[in-house]
Amino acid sequence: MRISIKNAHNVDAKQLAEVFNLSFYNDYVKYGECPGYNKTEEDILMGMTEYAVFKIIADGKIVGAISVCEKPNNNYFLGALCVIPSYANKGIGQIAMRFLDTEFPDATCWALETPTDKVQNHYFYKKFGYIATKEYFDGSVLISYFQRQL
């Protein structure tokens, strides 16, 4: 399977909305809420004005997405890294994380959030040097905030 990651464009918004909705559906069911779920094409287009959005392509189709927000002083926030369930656990997330390091070589700090009880996510991000620095509630969901200093 050949994986490529490319800048997303407005014409990709509908497919990206589908990717987000497939990727975050289980979180929505589990928590009753999820900011990554129930995305519309318009939501994706609006997000593209605030975030750098990339599409992850495998087998000739969009199977994942990455969204990154640049903050002051070469700090970046990883808003989303998602892969549709049928392509999960195939190493795509690892490719995406390495892509971020090459795409944003000026980064001095990365941050991201994930539910505290998503142990697999915690394990994944810790492999790439992220450290949980705080927890807080977003609605009824306990969230872990991770940072990676470079």
What does this structure look like?
With 150 residues, the protein is an alpha+beta fold. The chain has one domain: Aminopeptidase, CATH 3.40.630.30. Helices cover 33% and strands 37% of the residues. It is built from four helices and seven strands; from the N terminus they run βααβββαβαββ. A seven-stranded mixed beta sheet has the order 1-2-3-4-5-7-6, with helices on both faces. A hairpin with a 2-residue loop joins strand 2 (52-58) and strand 3 (61-71). The protein is globular and about 35 Å long.
Based on secondary structure, the structural category is alpha+beta
Outline type:
globular
Element-level helix/strand string: EHHEEEHEHEE
CATH H-level superfamily: Gcn5-related N-acetyltransferase (GNAT)
Estimated share of beta-strand residues: 35-45%
**Total DSSP helices:** 4
Going across the major beta sheet, what is the strand order?
1-2-3-4-5-7-6
Unreliable runs: none
* Helix proportion range: 25-40%
- Mean pLDDT, as a whole number? 97
